[in-house]
Every structure is written in C-alpha cells, then in structure tokens.
Amino acid sequence: MADAPSPVMFAVVTSKREAVSGGMAPIFYANDDEERDRIAMWIVRITNANVHDLHNGCLILVTSSAASVGSGG
Q1: Which of 19, 30, 32, 45 is deepest in the core (most CB within 10 A)?
Q2: What is the pLDDT along the chain (73 residues), one digit of tens a residue?
C-alpha cells in the first residue's frame, strides 16, 4: 500500500503583518481581509491548492505534494 502524500504548506496570505514572520513559505501581505481573500482565491485557482483560515488574519495555502504546486492541473 502506498503512503498518502503529505500536505505541504506553500504560502501564507495575511492582513496582519504582526501575525507572521520568517519561515520557508512565501508571505503575501494584504491591506485588509477583502484583499487577503482575493489574493488567496487567485493563488488557489492557479495552483489547485486548498486554503485554510487560521482565524487570526492569516490564510495558509496547502497542497498534497510540492510537485503539484504550479503543475497546471
């Protein structure tokens, strides 16, 4: 039986600069929650990823494997 792919967090989109610092994933800063949601929506559409709301002004974008990010679906 094959192992299930591990989820990979590949981006953070936030409207709260103080909530995120450092790390290996790129961070996209938005001016407000509406812009945050719009940025996340477009990245998710392009990469076919999933978005998770951390309820602290941050959204994380996750995919099932690093190889599928940007593969064009």
Answers
A1: 30
A2: 567 778 788 899 999 999 988 888 899 999 999 999 999 999 999 999 999 999 999 999 998 765 545 555 4
